[in-house]
Sequence to fold (110 residues):
Amino acid sequence: MIGVDNLVDLLVHCIDHPEASGKTFLASDGKDLSTPELIKFIASSMGKKANLFPFPISILKFLGSVFGRSEEINRLVGSLRIDNNYTKEILNWTPPVSVEEGIRRMVQEK
Fold:
């Protein structure tokens, strides 16, 4: 996940940086979030409480297989982590906006 402010900043870095030419970079805000954490950040930014309850992943995966939705369930509960250390190292780049601030901006600038 990467916020629009951080993506724009990274693209500007790529345009201006001499080492960026011809390379592929992975982009993220630098903080891995679980789905519940993301929901909590969004709710908090909206001034609301996230009403989440624990549900066994094994049952969710079973139900996904029964209803032919295994791919969707795996995307929901699986890891979406990327390693952007190469990007940060080559471009000497750090995301200027935190995940929390990016979500707050997204929610408040509807």
In short: The longest helix spans residues 4-16. Residues 1-31+81-97 form one domain. The helical segments are 4-16, 35-45, 57-66, 70-77, 85-91, 99-108.
